[in-house]
Amino acid sequence: MANGKDVRIRVILECTSCVRKSVNKKSIGISRYITQKNRHNKPSRLELRKFCPYCYKHTIHGEIKK
Question: Name one GO biological process term (predicted).
Answer without folding.
Answer: translation
